[in-house]
Design brief:
724 residues; Rossmann fold; 4 domains; nine-stranded mixed beta sheet; 27 helices; cell membrane; CDP-glycerol glycerophosphotransferase activity; Teichoic_Acid_Biosynth; TagF_C
Length: 724
C-alpha cells in the first residue's frame, strides 16, 4: 500500500501549483501519490495537473465540472486516495526539501492516527514567521503518541488540514468529511484531534504556508467570513455526540472565542459596517456554548475582551480597539517621519518639475492620449511599438506619444510624436494620459489617477525568476526595492502575456489585482506575418549575401556577474560553419551598448547589439544560439533551429534562479560547453530529428497564441473596450 496520499485541491493557483507539485515529487522518498483536484479553476490549473501526470504516474489528476470549494474538493480527493495516510496540501503551499523521509520514518515507527508537523508562514516579502509549535511545546514533544486529554495544549497548534497527516482508515471509520464553505478546516481539524487515540507531533518544519498578497481568503473582505460560525457549530455538535470528550469542552470553547476574536480583529476580513453584527454573533455563541461552571478568562487585555463579549458590550469593545489602533498609527507616523530630511535634499529643478507634475494631475485627463515607453525610454520597440502600430490602424482616435531619452530621439520612426524624458512635456504627458503603455514599469513618482489605464506588456517569457521571486536569490536581486516594485505593480490594469506559462509566473512574481490579457506577444506579430520578400530585404540591409547561413548568438545578461561573458570564440565557430557561415552577435540591452559604434563588422562576424530591431535579426537568422534569454520563445515562432548554449547553467540557476530548466525542456539541441556547441554544428544536431521534435513540443507549449493578431487583441480590449 502507498504510504502517503497527497490531496492537492487547486483553484486559481496556477502561479504556485508547479512549485507545490515539484516539492512533492522531488522529495527523496517515492512511496507517495498525488491526487490533484482541479476545482473547476478558470486558469491553467487543470492543464498543469495533466502535464505533471503525463510525466509522473504518481500524479492522478481529477477535473471537476463546477467549482465546489476547498472542503468538498478535498473530499473528492479523499475518495480517490489509496494511501495509508492522507495529507491535504493546498495548491499554493509547498513542502520543505528533504522532509518526507523523516515524516515517513515517524509514521512507520509510531503508526499515529494523526501526525501534526511544523510549518512556517512565508510572506510575499520572502520573510518567514515560525509557528507556535515552540510555545505550545516548550519541551520537544518527542516521538511518543498521546491522546488530546493528556496534552490538551495541542489544540493551540494551528487548526489547518495541511499541517497534519491523518490515517485514512481512522478518518473513514470516523465518517468525518470536510464541510462546505469558508473556514472548513475548523470542523475537520478539531474533531480529528478530539477523536484520535494516537496523536503524534513532529517538530520539524515541513510545510511552507504561503501568505499571498492577493487572492487569499484571509485577505478578502466580505460577509462570507460569517461562515466561521457554522463551522464551529459543527465542532460542538461533534462534542455533543461524544459525552466521553466532555472534559475537553472548556479548552475547545477557549479556542472558539480566540478564533472569533482573531477574525474580527483582522481589518482585511470584516468591513466596518459588518463588525457590530459579527460581534453580536460572537456573544450569542459565547453564551450558547459556555461550559457548565464557566471558564477562567485569560489575563490582561484578552481577558477584558472575553468579559466584553460575554456582556455583549460592542461599543466598549470597539472603543478599546480604536485606542489600540491610534497607538499603532502614532508609531507608524513616527517611522515615516524619518526620511523627510532625505527627501528635502532633492535638487531644486527636480522639485519644481515634480510640483508641475502634481499640478497637472489636477487637470482633466486627455481622453484620447496614449503614452508609450519601452526599455526605460530607449526608443520605439517591443510590444508597446506593436500595440501603437495596431492602435493607429484600429483606433485612429487615439493619439500616441512616445517617451524617449534625448540621445535616442533619432532612432524614432519618422512622424512619431514624442516627448523627451525629464522635460516639462514628459511630466505633462504622464499626468494627463488616459492610457500608459510600457514593457517595464514607469517611475515611482507616477500616480495611478482615476480614469487612467496602465498596460504592462512585459518584454519576454520568463526563464529567470522575476519580481518577488527574486527575493530568494539575493545575487539576482541586488539593489531591488521590492516594496517599491509592489507599488508599481498595483498601478497595472492589464498585464499582457504571451502564453499560459508566463501568466502563471507573473501571477506569483507580481501579485496584484490587474487583469491578464493572455493573447500572445504583439511584437511577434511581425514574425508571423513577414513574407519571404521582407526576409530578403532584411538580410540585404544587414549585408547578408544570398546563400549565406546566418547564426544569431544572443546570450542574456548575468546580473550577479556583470563582467561575465560565456566562453565563445567566433572564429572557431565560423570555421565549423564553413565559408557560407555568417555570425551575428547581440548582447543583452543591459550590456555593452552605451557609446559603442552603431555596428562593428569583422569579416563574417557582425556585432548587431545596437541594431534597433531585434525582430529584423530574428528574420535574418537561420539559427539562434542563446542561453536563458526570452529570445528563444520569440524566435521559436519562426520554427527555425534553436541551440541552447548554457555553460554555466548550474551556477546561473543557483545564483539567479530559473523557473524551468531550458536544458531539460529545450527548444532544440543543447550544448553545455563551447566544444559541445561546435560539435552541434559540426554534426548537424541543430537540424536533426530529435531537435525538430524538441522544437515542436516547445512551440506547442509557448507559441500557440502567436498568430499575427496579438496586437489587435490588445487594442480591441484596451482602447476599444471590446470584451475579450
Amino acid at each position: 500500500m502507498t504510504l502517503i496520499s497527497f490531496v492537492v485541491p487547486a483553484h486559481r493557483v496556477q502561479g504556485y501549483l508547479r512549485e507545490c507539485l515539484d516539492s512533492l515529487l522531488g522529495q527523496p522518498f517515492g512511496d507517495i501519490e498525488v491526487v490533484g483536484v482541479d476545482d473547476a479553476s478558470p486558469d491553467a490549473v487543470g492543464d498543469i495537473l495533466d502535464e505533471y501526470a503525463a510525466r509522473d504516474p504518481r500524479v492522478r489528476p481529477v477535473r471537476l465540472t463546477e467549482n465546489v470549494g476547498l472542503g468538498p474538493a478535498r473530499n473528492v480527493g479523499l475518495d480517490r486516495a489509496v494511501g495509508e495516510y492522507v495529507w491535504f496540501l493546498d495548491g499554493d503551499d509547498w513542502l520543505a526539501p528533504d522532509c518526507l523521509p523523516e515524516v515517513a520514518d515517524r509514521l512507520r515507527a509510531t503508526r499515529p492516527d494523526v501526525l501534526v508537523v511544523d510549518h512556517v508562514r512565508v510572506h510575499w516579502t520572502d520573510t518567514a514567521t515560525r509557528s507556535a509549535m515552540a510555545e505550545v511545546f516548550p519541551e520537544p514533544p518527542g516521538a511518543a503518541t498521546f491522546r488530546l486529554a493528556d496534552r490538551p495544549e495541542a489544540l493551540h497548534l494551528l487548526h489547518t488540514a495541511w499541517n497534519r497527516l491523518v490515517r485514512r482508515k481512522f478518518l473513514t471509520d470516523l465518517g468525518l468529511r470536510f464541510a462546505p464553505g469558508w473556514y472548513e478546516d475548523v470542523s475537520f481539524s478539531y474533531p480529528v484531534l478530539l477523536a484520535a487515540e494516537r496523536i503524534g507531533v513532529l517538530d520539524r518544519v515541513c510545510v511552507n504556508y504561503r501568505q499571498r498578497r492577493a487572492g487569499a481568503i484571509t485577505r478578502t473582505r466580505g460577509d462570507r467570513h460569517f461562515e466561521v460560525f457554522a463551522q464551529w457549530h459543527r465542532v460542538f455538535r461533534f462534542l455533543d455526540a461524544r459525552p466521553d470528550l466532555a472534559a475537553l469542552r472548556p479548552a475547545v470553547f477557549e479556542r472558539m472565542v480566540w478564533h472569533y476574536l482573531t477574525v474580527l480583529g483582522n481589518g482585511e476580513r470584516i468591513a466596518p459596517e459588518l463588525r457590530p453584527a459579527f460581534f453580536a454573533q460572537i456573544t450569542a455563541d459565547y453564551r450558547r456554548y459556555l461550559p457548565p461552571g464557566g471558564v477562567a478568562a485569560p489575563d490582561g487585555v484578552e481577558g477584558l475582551k472575553h468579559r466584553l463579549v460575554a456582556a455583549g458590550r460592542w461599543r466598549t469593545f470597539s472603543a478599546l480597539r480604536g485606542v489600540n489602533q491610534a497607538r499603532a498609527t502614532a508609531r507608524g507616523a513616527a517611522r515615516r517621519a524619518l526620511p523627510v530630511a532625505r527627501r528635502a535634499a532633492r535638487s531644486t529643478r527636480d522639485a519644481v518639475l515634480r510640483e508641475y507634475y502634481r499640478a497637472e494631475l489636477r487637470r482633466p485627463i486627455e481622453e484620447t492620449l496614449a503614452v508609450y515607453a519601452a526599455y526605460w525610454y530607449r526608443g520605439y520597440a517591443c510590444n508597446p511599438a506593436a500595440v501603437d502600430a495596431a492602435a493607429r490602424r484600429l483606433a485612429p482616435h487615439v493619439r500616441g506619444v512616445w517617451i524617449v531619452r534625448r540621445d535616442r530621439v533619432d532612432t524614432l520612426p519618422p512622424g512619431t510624436e514624442y516627448v523627451v524624458a525629464g522635460t516639462r512635456a514628459y511630466y505633462r504627458a504622464l499626468a494627463r494620459a488616459r492610457w500608459l503603455v510600457n514593457n517595464v514599469n514607469f517611475p515611482d513618482f507616477v500616480r495611478k489617477r482615476p480614469g487612467s489605464v496602465h498596460v504592462q506588456t512585459h518584454h519576454g517569457t520568463p526563464v529567470k525568476v522575476m519580481g518577488l521571486d527574486q527575493q530568494r536569490y539575493p545575487l539576482g536581486a541586488v539593489g531591488m526595492d521590492f516594496a517599491g516594485l509592489l507599488r508599481r505593480v498595483d498601478r497595472w490594469d492589464f498585464s499582457v502575456t504571451s502564453n499560459s506559462f508566463s501568466t502563471q509566473m507573473w501571477d506569483r512574481a507580481y501579485p496584484a489585482s490587474y487583469t491578464t490579457l493572455e493573447v500572445g506577444y504583439p511584437r511577434n506579430d511581425r514574425l508571423v506575418t513577414a513574407t519571404a520578400e521582407e526576409v530578403r530585404e532584411v538580410r540585404d540591409r544587414l549585408g547578408v549575401a544570398p546563400g549565406e547561413r546566418v547564426v544569431l548568438y544572443a546570450p542574456t545578461h548575468r546580473e550577479h556577474l556583470p563582467r561575465y561573458r560565456p566562453p565563445f570564440d567566433p572564429r572557431r565557430l565560423l570555421d565549423v560553419l564553413g565559408p557560407a557561415g555568417r555570425l551575428l552577435i547581440r548582447s543583452h540591452y543591459f550590456q555593452d551598448r552605451q557609446g559603442r559604434a552603431r555596428r562593428r563588422t569583422r569579416g563574417r562576424v557582425v556585432d548587431v547589439s545596437d541594431h534597433p530591431s531585434v525582430e529584423d535579426l530574428y528574420l535574418a537568422a537561420d539559427v539562434l544560439v542563446t542561453d536563458y534569454s526570452s529570445a528563444m520563445f520569440d524566435y521559436a515562432v519562426l520554427d527555425r533551429p534553436i541551440v541552447v548554449y548554457a555553460p554555466d547553467r548550474e551556477a546561473y540557476a543557483l545564483a539567479r534562479g530559473v523557473y524551468f530548466d531550458v536544458t531539460a525542456e529545450p527548444p532544440g539541441a543543447v550544448a553545455l560547453t563551447f566544444d559541445e556547441l561546435l560539435e552541434v554544428f559540426r554534426s548537424g544536431a541543430e537540424t536533426a530529428a530529435e531537435a525538430e521534435r524538441a522544437r515542436s513540443r516547445f512551440r506547442d507549449r509557448f507559441c500557440a497564441l502567436d498568430d499575427g493578431h496579438a496586437a489587435e487583441r490588445v487594442v480591441r480590449r484596451v482602447f476599444l473596450d471590446e470584451p475579450g
